[in-house]
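FAQ: What does the model actually see?

It sees only this:
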Amino acid sequence: MTTILPDAELMTGYDVKAALTHGLLIGGSPRRVLFGEAAIAASYQAEALHIGPYPLGFLARYVRAGGFTAALDLPEPVIGREASELVRRWLRAAAASGVDVEREVLFARWLASVALLITMRRRVREAGNH
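And it is asked to produce this:
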């Protein structure tokens, strides 16, 4: 049986770094969790620090083109100290899985998924304000 976590837990208490490390290394359930609960939790964490979908989408393309090392070398992967620290934690957790083109592309896809979730939530909020 699958346990469904409430949004409140995904917003605050979810260990995205652990999900990244496991999901990038292990297929099956850990990978589904990475692209499900972990992506949702990451989108909430990003929004809380005012990280929008465009910077995450840009970073996803950057990781795809240059890999973990190049992304970790960016002086400011997103705008703002706290926001950059959050994204660097994700990058370091992903890089801890080992430098591998397939894992880098998978992480880039994950970042793009996080950006998409933020976009979707924004559109729902905007539709509710009309």
